[in-house]
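Hi,

I'm pasting everything inline rather than attaching a file, because the server keeps stripping attachments. The sequence lines come first, and each chain or strand is labelled.
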Amino acid sequence: MSTDAVVTTAAYEACPVTGVLRIIGDKWSPAVLRLLAERGHGFNELDRSIEGISRRMLTRTLRSLEESGYVLRTPYGPAPARVEYTLTARGRSLREQLRALGQWASVHDTGP
Amino acid sequence: MSTDAVVTTAAYEACPVTGVLRIIGDKWSPAVLRLLAERGHGFNELDRSIEGISRRMLTRTLRSLEESGYVLRTPYGPAPARVEYTLTARGRSLREQLRALGQWASVHDTGP
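And the predicted assembly:
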């Protein structure tokens, strides 16, 4: 381990931006955030709307977004209750950050 | 494959922000961008300055940042030439985006 590390693992892990980058750098979170920014969606709706995502990955992505406080999961209707996913205020605010990054990216032509 | 997909794989891959998110969502790129934003660094300097990164991952991260136009690799001095890595204008601009995201993240308390 380098003794004169400027960027230590501890500092890196504690940095607030690290948590955000994990979310937005994840393959499917941006797509889910984008759809939920339009309106609330049910699980199957999200599954149908995102090409290539498995139900397992959608479950994992939604749980991670929920745990990070970006998405709210609301059961509704008689049992077996249906569920709607919506963006929280923090989720909407993150979506704005993504939109700004998208504008920056289109100006700087950063296609993959 | 879902026929009524709103977020198709093709559209997702072509979206400029996807390319940027791949870079900044990658484990080590933000740390390299941060160090190079301060000043140019040699390979060994970067290796010593980032705790936990392997030389193989540093090589891969630098190559990806170079290919995306964020980092410039400049050989200098007599053979075997030494190399300095610096941020391009696009790299400095991306670094500003990361800084803005960091400010957003510290306000929204998004620790990992």
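The radius of gyration of chain B is 17 Å.

If the labels don't parse on your end, tell me and I'll reformat.
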